[in-house]
Amino acid sequence: MNTNISVTKSIKSTDTLVLLADRKMLDWATEMLNKEGAGYIKQAAKKDINAVFIPRQKGNFIVQFLDSNQEESLRSEDVRLAGNDLLSTINHYKIESIVVSNVHPVNMLGDFVEGLALGNYQFIKYFKDQSERKKCLKSIKVMKEDFSSIQVKELRNIIDATFHARDLVNEPLSFLTAPELANQARIFGKKYGFKVTVFNKKKIEKLKMGGLLAVNRGSNDPPTFSILEWNPAKAKNKKPIVLVGKGIVYDTGGVSLKSTANSMDFMKSDMGGAATVIGSMVAIAANKLPLHVIALVPSTDNRPGQDAYVPGDVIEMFSGNTVEVLNTDAEGRLVLADALHYAKRYQPELVLDFATLTGAAARALGPEGISYMGTANNTICKKIEESGFRVYERLVRFPLWREYHHQLKSNIADIKNLGGPNAGMITAGKFLEYFTDFPWLHFDIAGSAYLKVADGYRTKEGTGVGVRLVYDFLKNY
User: Fold this and answer.
1) How far apart are CA 42 and CA 293, in angstroms?
2) Is a pLDDT exceeding 90 seen at residue 453?
3) What is the mean pLDDT of the chain?
4) What distance in Å separates the CA atoms of residue 162 and residue 143, rounded to the nearest whole number?
5) Domains in the chain, ordered, with CATH?
6) Which of 60, 111, 215, 217 could share a disulfide with 79, CB 3.0–4.6 Å?
7) Average pLDDT over residues 18-28
């Protein structure tokens, strides 16, 4: 990870101390600082200054004022943002190591460190001057009385998993082909202890995964279908929970070619769903959640090659159903449909799929939220929405009314891959529902998986969205 997080029992004189405080409760200032320093802190508190930096001969002293008079999810998010905001001061003074301690009546240290660490992420692999570009903060230590070693380890693993997801999204197709995405899954499986099985093209052809194979027809690289499994000895669920992630490593739109400006130029991110479920498996295994979880990642790129599928084609899916293709840029639902049908083999307790699926979802909610829909019961939906507020990856549930299915009726096949001009995120979800017979939720992360401008600790480009959401949901499942 970009920043090491650890626990310490004491503060050295050379340490930069970051103190989390309430601006209305400053008794500690008189005890810890001289008269002049305490007075300075109290004056800053009255002027609504959020952070006070006091340079010292050896170690610096930073006071971060935090507000606790808010609803819990908003408070946690503001604390994360405050952690991220402090990075500008840390970078300005070239501080490499800090110790964070809490004198606030509410212990918000975990959220603060999370925002600080997530905001410190960088993807500088391809720069010649990496050493000059590297951010200075290397170490965050927390006081043992404020945050336990177990809590630190869990947080560190979640941040690592989020960074892995960000890295995958940020990698270009020149590196991250479908076979390489499968290879990255293998590397993570070996490192964190989950099983990875990868189907090659020959196996995919034998299974007759027609959706995945059709999308792959224009590509120079073979498709892959990766199965990631975490199955601890004392799993609490008798039937597995299955995660499915769209792994389109690059999307030109195929024969239905996208425009380049503001569309195709960031389509390396179209495997954001795959990044979410791979990152989630890292967090689950690293923290040893007592649940049986399987992730399925169908992967290819979508190109207008010599043998590419075209609008008007009819393809036979892995399920045996036929699909009339009206638009080759509606390819994500085809590969997901094969994976969802494959999930039936596990008789799953619950299936969650993640995909950068539709522009409609991005237009509806922007990067501020995730549209979701499905057939899981209201209790499950309530639980995952609660997780969404806790990690501030908020969810908005859309209906799957039967009327939406009418838009997918074909004159020559069982179903077509495109609905009408309206409610595109719902008709896409309705298409996926056709291939399910289990409790299922679909998450369209098109608006939040990739940002052209950083949003607080959600850094520019890949955000790793969904990893923290899935982990929090399953931890509290």
Assistant:
1) 51
2) yes
3) 96
4) 24
5) 4-145 (3.40.220.10), 156-475 (3.40.630.10)
6) 111
7) 93
pLDDT of residue 260: 79
Asked about 458 being catalytic, the answer comes back as no
Give the position of tokens 């969404």. Answer: 388
What contacts 107, CB < 8 A, 6 or more positions away?
146, 147
The amino acid sitting at 62 is I
CB 104 within 8 A of CB 22: yes
Token pair, residue 282, equals 């890292």
Is 258 labeled as catalytic in the residue annotation?
A: yes
Nearest C-alpha neighbor of 459 from the set 28, 163, 25 = 163
Instruction: Tokens 């509606």: give the residue.
Output: 330
Q: How many whole angstroms separate alpha carbon 415 and alpha carbon 426?
A: 15
Q: Which two tokens stand for residue 98?
A: 């800090």
Active-site pick, 195, 258, 344, 460: 258
Strand (E) or helix (H) holding 62: strand 61-65
In the block, residue with structure tokens 């795959």: 274
pTM score? 0.97
pLDDT at residue 69, rounded to an integer: 81
How crowded is the C-beta side of 144, counted as CA atoms within 13 Å? 5
In this structure, the strands spanning 440-444 and 370-374 are antiparallel
SS (H, E, C) 217-265: CCCCCCCEEEEEEECCCCCCCCCCEEEEECEEEEECCCCCCCCCCCCHH
Q: Read off φ and ψ for residue 116, nearest 5 degrees.
A: -65, -50
Secondary structure element (H or E) that encloses residue 462, with its range: strand 461-462
CA geometry: angle at 390 spanning 380 and 457, to 5°? 130
Could you tell me if 418 and 424 are in contact, meaning their C-beta atoms sit under 8 angstroms apart? Answer: no
**Strands (DSSP E) found in 69-199:** 97-102, 139-143, 195-199
pLDDT at 338: 98
Structural tokens at position 476: 């509290």
